[in-house]
Task: inverse folding
C-alpha cells in the first residue's frame, strides 16, 4: 500500500517551486496517498488478456482530404469592408501611432 511522507511532499513542493505550510504538507501527504492508492487499485484490475487502449471506442479520422480549391479574388472580401485602401482593409489608427 503506497504511503507518501511529509518529507517527500516537501521535496516535491521544492521541485515545483511551491511554498507550502506545515499544515498543507500534512493535507497534501494524505491527498497524494489517496491518489497513489487509487492508481495502485486500477493497476491491479488490469489483466494480461486485455490489450492496452488509449480510448474506449475505436477512432476514425474525421478530417476531410486536403484538396486545392480556388480562393477569393482580392476584390471580393474587400467589397464587404467598410473601408479599403491600396488593396487592403483600412482600419482606424490605434495607440496614437504616426503614419
Result:
Amino acid at each position: 500500500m503506497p504511503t507518501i511522507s511529509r518529507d517527500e511532499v516537501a521535496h516535491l513542493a521544492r521541485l515545483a517551486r511551491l511554498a507550502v505550510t506545515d499544515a498543507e504538507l500534512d493535507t497534501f501527504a494524505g491527498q497524494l496517498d489517496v491518489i497513489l492508492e487509487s492508481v495502485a487499485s486500477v493497476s491491479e484490475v488490469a489483466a494480461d488478456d486485455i490489450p492496452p487502449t488509449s480510448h474506449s471506442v475505436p477512432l476514425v479520422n474525421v478530417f476531410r482530404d486536403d484538396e486545392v480549391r480556388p480562393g477569393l479574388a482580392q476584390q471580393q472580401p474587400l467589397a464587404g469592408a467598410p473601408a479599403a485602401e491600396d488593396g487592403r482593409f483600412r482600419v482606424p489608427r490605434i495607440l496614437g501611432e504616426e503614419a
